[in-house]
C-alpha cells in the first residue's frame, strides 16, 4: 500500500447511535469517501477485535462519534485511545471528534476541537467534516519511520495503555 490507506475514514460509534451514524456513513460514501463502517465490513465468523484493529490500521482518519452512548462504550474508548496513542496531540489530524449529543466531553477528549453533529447544526457542519475526511497530505503514512514500533505494535501498545486505565474490552 505504500503511503496509501485502504479507507479514508473509520467511523467509531456506539451501536446505540446507529440511527444517526448510518445515514452519515451513507452520505460520506455518496460523496466519494471510502468509509470503514462495521455493517459494511464485518462478516459472520469474523474476529471483531481483529477486524477493528485492521480497520484502524488501514484508515487515514478516525471519526469518533461522541455521545453519552459512546462514552459508555469500551469499544469506542479503545478505538479513540489507539489512535491518540499514535499521535497524542493529533498533529497529523488523524483523529476527528464528532459530537452527536450534549453529553459532557471529559478527560483528554476535551482538548480537541470537535465538529457539532447536533440535528440543528448538521447542514452547516457537514462541509467541515467532508473536507477533513477528503484532505490528503503527504504526512499520512502507514508506518512512522521514526517510531520504534510498527503500526500493529503501536495498536498493541495503545491497547496496553488503555487497559492500564481500567477500560475493559
Keywords:
disordered C terminus, Rossmann fold, single chain, 169 residues, globular, 5 strands, 5-stranded parallel beta sheet
Poorly predicted runs: 137-152, 154-169
The proportion of residues in beta strands is 5-15%
Shape: globular
Q: How are helices and strands ordered from N to C?
A: EHEHHEHHEEHH
Structural class, by secondary structure, is alpha/beta
Task: Write down the domain tally.
Answer: 1
Label the CATH architecture.
3-Layer(aba) Sandwich
Instruction: Provide the gyration radius in Å.
Output: 15 Å
Main beta-sheet annotation: 5 strands, parallel
Counted by DSSP, the helix tally is: 7
Which strand order spans the largest sheet, edge to edge or round the barrel?
Answer: 2-1-3-4-5
Helix content: 40-55%
Per CATH, the superfamily is Toll/interleukin-1 receptor homology (TIR) domain
Overall strand count: 5
CATH fold label: Rossmann fold
Descriptive overview:
There is one protein chain. The chain has helices spanning 18-30, 38-41, 48-57, 68-71, 74-86, 122-134, 151-164, and strands at residues 7-12, 35-36, 59-66, 95-99, 115-116. With 169 residues, it is of the alpha/beta class. The protein has one domain: Rossmann fold, CATH 3.40.50.10140. The protein is globular and about 35 Å long.
Annotate the secondary structure layout:
Blueprint (H helix, E strand, L loop, with lengths): L6 E6 L5 H13 L4 E2 L1 H4 L6 H10 L1 E8 L1 H4 L2 H13 L8 E5 L15 E2 L5 H13 L16 H14 L5
Parallel strand pairs: 1-2, 1-3, 3-4, 4-5
Helix pairs in contact: 5-7
Amino acid at each position: 500500500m505504500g503511503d496509501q490507506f485502504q479507507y479514508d475514514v473509520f467511523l467509531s460509534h456506539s451501536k446505540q447511535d446507529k440511527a444517526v451514524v448510518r445515514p452519515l456513513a451513507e452520505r460520506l460514501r455518496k460523496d466519494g469517501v471510502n468509509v470503514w463502517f462495521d455493517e459494511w465490513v464485518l462478516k459472520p465468523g469474523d474476529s471483531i477485535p481483529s477486524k477493528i484493529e485492521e480497520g484502524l490500521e488501514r484508515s487515514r482518519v478516525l471519526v469518533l462519534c461522541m455521545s453519552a452512548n459512546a462514552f459508555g462504550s469500551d469499544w469506542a474508548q479503545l478505538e479513540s485511545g489507539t489512535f491518540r496513542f499514535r499521535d497524542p496531540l493529533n498533529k497529523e489530524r488523524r483523529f476527528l471528534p464528532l459530537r452527536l449529543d450534549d453529553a459532557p466531553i471529559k478527560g483528554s477528549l476535551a482538548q480537541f476541537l470537535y465538529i457539532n453533529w447536533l440535528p440543528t447544526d448538521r447542514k452547516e457542519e457537514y462541509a467541515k467534516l467532508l473536507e477533513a475526511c477528503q484532505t490528503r497530505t503527504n504526512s499520512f503514512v502507514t508506518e512512522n519511520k521514526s517510531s520504534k514500533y510498527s503500526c500493529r505494535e503501536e495498536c498493541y501498545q495503545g491497547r496496553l495503555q488503555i487497559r492500564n486505565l481500567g477500560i475493559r474490552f
